[in-house]
Specification:
heterodimer, A: mainly alpha, 13 helices, B: alpha/beta, 11 helices, 39% helix, elongated
């Protein structure tokens, strides 16, 4: 894992020196703020159903997922594709760093941007807590879910950028994989076979995130997200290694 | 220090490097010469461990490159052909990143970066964003990066490309000074560069080693026993015949003449010095010898003859059914 921290530091610098990170984070916060506002307005209507605003905010709406599957590929797309296109991969991989160090460093940097995008949403919690009681348990679990889903999605994005020379292609492939991950479990509504239905429900990111938002930290969800992350990190590493097969 | 043993690289059906074997000893500066597409960069990439060879092996410090890639990379400072750099970083940020990547101890980092910026003359652009630097500066930033960790071996792929004449002179003397403690393998297609700084030259063509030796050996080896230009006074035909009969002379070409003088190019037999015999011949035949110059063939001629001879031979091979 040699070189992890050097690579992570440099990638983080590159993110914040270029406008991309600011654009992504700003767009994300503006959209999220809007959704949060809509949730609050809807819930304060007389006669509306009662629910915790934060529970709705974390995966309770379609928008949560739409933002994520756009934001994460936008963050990760440059990590590998840019190095390949500009040729800097050659200087990077002839420096005394391991391939795993390169993968880990880039992954950490992307996660840093992801976390930076979510941090300002803690303000929502502060605002809510001024006007009502906020149960800290479900909120903490919700953020844990956000982090875990982020780990998983970012690993998918990292993989696609490691196999592509073109940033846009990398982003589109990542977007597609994420859509599939999100939508295939929806087929459980149409399936009658109990076993298949069970598997699809287990893989449902929607159920999983709603559980987190309710404050339920399910080990099965942890296993799914973390093993998915490990799989795509392995694939990223292998993608970097393919140059050795040539 | 650097060694290749029948190193071969194939891309699909094309063979980029064909069983290449050579050695570069410690303290040597070896010029790696060849026309475009000869396989210089591919060979260098295999030595640095960026590309795996199809067969054969490259050794650095006596150890196969793939056995301990990290150790190899630590021993080598590499300037790739296109000199890729991170466009969005500032010069000093880039060098700081590379220094930490290469494991330059934290305490020494700042001083070391100052040193290489000084010696590569890029101190004045330290705060510039690399993307806005001119080609000459970029080239020297790449060179500074190669020197950062003070590696024992330097592999420089066309280090003087894009530099202005003054920078070229400076860079060459920099490389020459480095060679005292470093092993340098540099590729170029600028021939005077090889003459100016390299102690030895390796010429490759179409992935094959064509020549490995000093510049003098190259010039001597190709002219066989040496080429002479000889001017005598007397009848051209008669002079040619008697010169041809002279001991040690391989061939005589009439170059031209004016009034009663005739000029010839005399090719001596391999390994023989025909000058004395020519003198005695002329004296015996009663033809005053006006001029006798031994002609050095230039590196350009040697290079062209090496790299075109091969293609000519191949052509005749192909023509045969």
């Amino acid at each position: 894992m040699k070189g992890t921290l050097s690579v992570a530091w440099k990638e983080t610098l590159s993110y914040f020196f270029a406008p991309m990170a600011y654009i992504v984070i700003t767009a994300f916060l503006v959209m999220n703020g809007l959704i949060f506002y809509i949730i609050l307005t809807a819930l304060s209507q007389p006669g509306s159903f009662s629910a915790s605003p934060m529970a709705l905010f974390f995966g309770g709406t379609l928008f949560f997922w739409i933002f994520l599957i756009i934001m994460v590929p936008a963050i990760t797309m440059r990590l590998g594709a840019e190095e390949k296109k500009s040729g800097t991969l050659e200087t990077l991989l002839t420096a005394p760093v391991t391939d795993s160090g390169v993968v880990a460093g880039k992954y950490l940097a992307a996660m840093a941007v992801y976390v930076a995008a979510w941090l300002p949403t803690l303000i929502y919690v502060l605002v809510l807590s001024r006007y009502s009681d906020v149960d800290p348990g479900p909120v903490a679990a919700g953020y844990l879910g956000v982090l875990l889903v982020g780990l998983f999605f970012t690993s998918v994005g990292l993989f696609t950028t490691m196999v592509s020379r073109n940033q846009l292609v990398a982003a589109i492939i990542a977007f597609t994989i994420l859509i599939v991950l999100l939508c295939v479990p929806l087929l459980s509504f149409m399936v009658t076979d109990v076993a298949v239905k069970g598997v699809l429900q287990y893989l449902s990111l929607w159920n999983l995130m709603q559980n987190f938002a309710k404050g339920i930290v399910d080990t099965r969800a942890l296993v799914y997200l973390l093993s998915g992350t490990a799989l795509f990190l392995m694939l990223s590493y292998q993608a970097l290694q393919t140059r050795r097969w040539a | 220090m650097i060694e290749t043993r029948s190193l071969t690289k194939r891309f699909g059906t094309t063979t980029a490097v064909d069983s290449m074997s050579f050695q570069v000893g410690t303290g040597e500066i070896v010029g790696f010469l060849g026309p475009n597409g000869a396989g210089k960069s591919t060979t260098m990439r295999m030595i640095t461990g960026f590309l795996p060879p199809t067969s054969g092996e490259a050794l650095v410090n006596g150890k196969p490159v793939w056995e301990d890639p990290l150790e190899t990379r630590r021993a080598i400072g590499y300037l790739p052909e296109s000199n890729p750099l991170y466009e969005d970083l500032r010069v000093h940020e880039y060098l700081r990143f590379r220094a930490s990547l290469k494991g330059v101890p934290r305490k020494r980092r700042r001083n070391r970066i100052e040193e290489v910026m000084e010696s590569c003359e890029i101190s004045d652009v330290r705060h510039r964003i690399i993307g806005t630097c001119s080609k000459g500066y970029r080239q020297r930033i790449g060179l500074a990066d190669a020197l950062l960790a003070d590696p024992p071996a330097l592999i420089l792929d066309e280090p003087t490309v894009g530099l202005d004449p003054a920078q070229i002179v400076h860079t060459r003397s920099l490389i020459k000074n480095l060679a005292r403690e470093h092993t340098v393998l540099l590729s170029t297609h600028i021939l005077p560069e090889v003459e100016a700084i390299c102690s030895r030259t390796i010429i490759i063509h179409k992935g094959r080693l064509q020549f490995d030796g000093t510049v003098e050996e190259l010039q001597k080896g190709l002219s066989g026993g040496g080429m002479l230009t000889c001017t005598v006074r007397g009848d051209a035909e008669k002079a040619r015949n008697s010169l041809l009969k002279t001991e040690g002379v391989e061939d005589v070409d009439f170059l031209g003449g004016e009034e009663d003088q005739s000029r010839f190019r005399v090719t001596a037999q391999a390994g023989r010095d025909a000058r004395e015999a020519i003198f005695w011949t002329c004296s015996k035949e009663g033809m005053p010898l006006l001029e006798l110059v031994s002609r050095q063939i230039s590196l350009e001629e040697a290079f062209l003859s090496l790299t075109t001879r091969e293609s000519a031979a191949e052509k005749t091979e192909e023509e045969q059914p």
